[in-house]
Structure formats: structure tokens, C-alpha cells
Amino acid sequence: MKRIADDIPGYTYGSPDAAVSPVTLDDLERLKLTVGWNDEDRDFLKLAGEVLGDQTRAVVLHWRSRIIAAIPHLARHFRSLEGLPLPGYLGRSNLRFEQWILDTCLRPHDQEWLNYQFAIALRHTGAKKNRTDSVRSTAYVPLSDILAFFAVMNESIRPFLAAKGHSNEAVDAMHRAWRKSMHIQSALMARAYTNPKNGRNEW
Amino acid sequence: MKRIADDIPGYTYGSPDAAVSPVTLDDLERLKLTVGWNDEDRDFLKLAGEVLGDQTRAVVLHWRSRIIAAIPHLARHFRSLEGLPLPGYLGRSNLRFEQWILDTCLRPHDQEWLNYQFAIALRHTGAKKNRTDSVRSTAYVPLSDILAFFAVMNESIRPFLAAKGHSNEAVDAMHRAWRKSMHIQSALMARAYTNPKNGRNEW
Question: Are the C-beta atoms of B11 and B68 separated by less than 8 Å?
Fold first, then answer.
């Protein structure tokens, strides 16, 4: 699998001792059916992965430095509790964020993908945030921030998809597949936030 | 406020005895900041409300009859536990769904809007589903189904926005504002599903 770096700290995709996601492959099929996922989306998301392959750093810097850094309630999640920069944390997290773009586009939708999706989700909750990088930062990223930020990831990807000279129709198709994947992933992220200690999980 | 019918059963927008949403106006501002909401979006969402005003029935029928009805795990939420149609339930819910389109576009983002958003969300959870219409159907709509279905509402609205002869740029702007609102509302929906009886709410 294509990697944005030989070694990405904390990147545990496919690790044999990874926790199994509570989301099943049947659940995933259900989500794909709901968003209208089809073979064209599969093919164009793969093309998006090729198009974005050498742009992942630019995309992540756009999100992190242009958007998140300018919004205090988002920026604090990569700063110390006193509001000071944590460049090591940000750098490691950015590398994983870059790799997530590739994994979004190029990985098969199998149990390993679900497991790592769940690992990512947990790392945003109070159960696991800060632990991968041994930092002191906010205790968790609110689910509402995450769901709203998918709007940014949905919209702002388009110029990057268009940067390699593909036809407008092909860019549209890549963008459509990307958005469907974002909606699937927003649902997967929410799973880690809906685990009542008592009562039914209505995820 | 524009209504799609003089009397919509169970439509309690602005009711003086409505429950207050746990989501505050500050939370809403945070969500709007995250999705990049601006004055252009406000104006073009209002225009979308005018464009969609006489199309709400067509939009809801497209979603309910063309899409949801064809996906068994979604269709069951408007059927009896034995899988039989509940036309009264569907009809009343469709009227509220139509009105929701207008409210999305035309209502100010104030506490009343937040309160009714929360009422809508609760009516999808085990706490309130079926009670408004006194029916026996599925106990709740899974949050994952809802978050994924926002992909459909995001994409399929465009032809309706384009149906009144506006320029491509104006349709783009209406569609962009609509998508941002959908992302804000997906976050608001999730609030009703993240209420652990014990432990921290990380919404």
C-alpha cells in the first residue's frame, strides 16, 4: 500500500493486535447502500487517490494551517491545555491525516479498514485522545466539531481533484465519490461517541 | 412563516411548552464557524427556500418513494413491525419533512430553531419515535442511517434548486449553502444520540 512516509508514528493500520471494530461489514454495506455507493464511485475514488497522491501534504496543510488554525475551538485540540503549540503532536497527526487521504481512496472496504476507522474515531474521544502521542491536550474532540468539519473536507477537496487536468466530468465523479466516502466515514466516526454505559446503543 | 399546510399533525415549531434544546446558541455559532457559514450562505439559503417553496412535495416524494422505499433497512422505519405499510404515519411524517425543507431555508437560526431541531432528533431516537403519531414501528432510527442519508439530501437537491432558471453560479451558491446547513443539522441530530446515562457527553 502506498505510504506517505516509510514510518508514520502511531499508524497501526492492519496491525494484527488491532482492536476489532464494533461496526460489522454488514453495517458498512448498509451505509454504502444508503449513500448510493456504486462501482463508478469505487473506480473514481481510486482515481482520486492517484490524483491526490502527491498532494496529500498540501491538502492537510490547507485544512490544518488555513482552516483549523484560524478557528480557536478547533485549533485547541492540537495545542497544550495552556494553548501553546505542540509541534510534535501536530506533525505526527498531520502525517497520519495525509495517510488517511490515501487510505480513504485506495484501501478496500474490509474489516481491517473498519478496524482502523474505529481506532481513528477512538483517538478523538476521551478514551484514547493524546495517548498515541503522549501529549497533554484537550481531553477529546467533540463529535459535533468532527461532523461539522466534514463539510470542509467535502468542499475544499475539489481544486486538488482538478489539479491534474482531468475533464470536468471526471472531477465531478471523483468529487461525488469522495463526498459519499466522507458521509460513510462521518457515520463511522460517530460510532465511538455513542456507547452508553447503560442503555441501548442507537448508533 | 410559510407553511406547506394549514395544519401539520405533530408540527410543534415554536410551541411555548417545547423542550429547550441542550444545544446552545453558542454551540450553534461554533458549528457555523466550522462549516464556514457566511452572509452569502444565509442569502442563498433563503433564495433556495423560495425556489423550493412549491417543490417540497416533489422533493420529499423523491426521497421517500424513490430512495428510502427501495432500501429495506430504511423503509422499515415507516412500516409496522410486521413490515406492513403505515400510510397515515408516512403521510404525516412526509408533511413534516416538507415543512422541514422550508424551515431549513427560511427560519432564523435562533433558540426556537434549535429547540425544534432537537425535537426532530428525539423523534428518531428510542425516547420519542412513534409517539407523535401513536404508531407501532421500529423503536428508533439508527444514527448511522441518518448521517449516511444526509449524503442523499446533499446530492439530490440540486436539480430542484436548478428548476427555476437561475444561473449556474446562483444554483452553485444555493447548493453550497444547503450542504453547509445539512452538515450543521447532521451534528445537531447526533446530539440526541450521545446522552450517556453515566459518563461524559462528548458531543
Answer: no
